Amino acid sequence: MAAFIPTLALGLQLSRDPNVRLRQHSHSHSHPRSYHIHTSQLRMSLRKAGHRHTHRLRDLSLSATSASEDHMFDDNPILCAKDTEIYDTTLRDGSQGEGISFSLEDKIRILKELDKFGVSYVEGGWPGSNPKDVAFFNAAKSMKLRYAKLAAFGSTRYKNTTCEKDANIQALINAETPVVTLVAKSCSYQVELVLSTTKEENLAMIYDSVHYLKSFGKVVMLDLEHFFDAYVRDPEYALECCYHAVIAGVDALVLCDTNGGALPWQIHSVTKEIVEKFGDKCKVGIHCHNDMEMAVANSLSAVEAGAMVVQGTMNGFGERTGNANLTTIIPTLAIKMNKDCMHVKENLKLLTSLSRLMDELANQPHVNSRPFVGSSAFAHKGGLHVAAVMKDENTYQHIDPTLVGNVKRILISELSGRGNILSKMEELG
Fold it and tell me: In whole angstroms, what is the distance from residue 108 CA to residue 111 CA?
């Protein structure tokens, strides 16, 4: 069976070339069109156009009619894991929160605690951005992690250069981590405005960077910045970015609600479409920001739609109003949605103490009202509530607090009833 390379913009550009045969697949009018271009014809046309990345395109099939499709990615280690994987970016994205700065010693301790807790991935920082992160990755080389895989973060190569000459890409290689997470623009508007380059060059930047890092045996995740905004503004180009990453061998496409402006049903709809298009080639992940207090709900909606990698930070630390809060996401996935979450589920009782430690190391005040791990999460003040809880805790508690290492508390105030007083007396002996 002939191999095909799917693309959208190249298909639109090359459709005028009589040497290129396009097969258009019909979808409902609400979906972007998709094309399959025969590899040899694509190469020929690109050579005529002088495209300098032609020789790197691999002969792999993304056609739904490919007989060998079911076995093409059987050796992909990230696809073999079927559990929802927790990707912690506290040390990188979390440290971008106002007033938060981790020392090198803090970062090392946090890495150890997150590994002990059982998260699948820990993003340690951006080795190409500052000396402290370089020192961290050098120190981490000698550490033996039990559960977590350490990830280094960076951007795709700079425009109009090569990965071999790009200092940021080389810093990612020198970090010697098993996982590399790249950030890439998926919004055509941002490509032209922020990167000041063409849409075609951005696609080449994505392909080159992923392909180069895969040649070093890395697990490569691609954070597609502003993806949900891009999918509304220019869905065909957003899909092109996905296609080029998949062709290059990416292990996970991480869809980012970078501005935190999407709603749960929007996240679900788009994520489901991306899972349907690419879920048998790579994993799909989610990365949400909390600008509308929706980051947790959006992350869970993405999981419900098929996302299998969830990025977030402990206590929701992060830029502006923060990132998706893993101290809420993790117990919700494990207890409410019955997701295995690798080794995290068996260590849930460590969650509250881990949250408090993160506050301490980040020099942040403890948020009493934080779900699951806050000191007020299972505190009862009203007399009517306390009277009911003394008979059955489930009357005003959605879970047993000990599951996440927290405790039930009975408060005394002017709202107290007899049950509050009796409970406090019993507590004090």
Answer: 5
